[in-house]
Design a protein that fits this description.
Oligomer: heterodimer
Order of helices and strands of chain B: EEEEEEEEEEEE
Structural class of chain B: mainly beta
Largest sheet of chain A: 7 strands, mixed
Order of helices and strands of chain A: EEEEEEEEEEE
Radius of gyration of chain A: 13 Å
Strand content of chain B: over 45%
Number of helices of chain B: 0
Shape of chain B: globular
Distance between the termini of chain A: 37 Å
């Protein structure tokens, strides 16, 4: 079946602009995660959804970052007043949650965000 | 605090030779350990995981990993490397006793180069 998809694959924006990044999880997966991967580093956790609610948003760096998942499927990561330091690859993952942390997360190809 | 270390930025090996990619971790309890591989411009692909039971875990593409509790390690191995194994490898840990066991902590990645 289809994997996790993310759009757009690349996004170039100017400093101060607003951007939205979209994630379509694997059908039936109740858990959805956002990570940020900077050049030369491993992914860093941003936020985790169980269903429609954000169960853990402790990784969001500041209040410019916000994510929603209104119907428990597609999620949108929103970044306001973008800064050059926000440039990174934003990865989305999904899984069957409720397994006490033993579930495997399946990752999308990512959105490469460049803030000029 | 939870953390993962991949001490080698890069591993070089000749095709046909065995390969090892190292990973050590730090968690408060018994860890859940994962390995992912990342090819250029693609998302992370799941290779294998250790949850409990046999310390030797077998995964995709002939890879295996050994959980060593006394050394807090989870090294990735393959008996005979292929040129197509060349990619970026990430070790990740979840802490079942942590505040949110759904969150992955990733290492910084190891670039594997397999030369023909």
């Amino acid at each position: 079946g289809a994997g996790v998809s993310q759009t757009p694959s690349n996004k170039v924006t100017e400093k101060g602009k607003y951007v939205e990044l979209r994630c379509d999880p694997i059908s039936g997966h109740t858990a959805l995660y956002w990570y940020r991967q900077s050049l030369g580093q491993g992914p860093e956790f941003l936020i985790y959804f169980q269903g429609t609610g954000a169960a853990d948003d402790s990784g969001l760096p500041n209040d410019r970052f916000f994510a929603v998942r209104p119907e428990g499927s597609v999620s949108t990561l929103k970044i306001q007043r973008t800064e050059r330091g926000d440039s990174a690859v934003y990865l989305c993952a999904s899984s069957f949650a409720g397994q006490g942390g033993t579930d495997t997360q399946y990752f999308g190809p990512g959105t490469r965000l460049t803030v000029l | 605090a939870q953390s993962v270390a991949q001490p080698e930025d890069q591993v070089n090996v000749a095709e046909g030779n065995p390969l090892t990619v190292k990973c050590t971790y730090s968690v408060s309890g018994n860890p859940y350990l994962f390995w992912y591989v990342q090819y250029p411009n693609r998302g992370l692909q799941f290779l294998l995981k250790y949850i409990t039971g046999d310390n030797l875990v077998k995964g995709s593409y002939g890879f295996e990993a050994e959980f060593n509790k006394s050394q807090t390690s989870f090294h990735l191995k393959k008996p005979s490397a292929l040129v197509s194994d060349s990619a970026l490898y990430f070790c990740a840990v979840r802490d079942p006793l942590g505040g949110n066991f759904n969150k992955f902590y990733f290492g910084s990645g190891t670039k594997l180069n397999v030369k023909p």
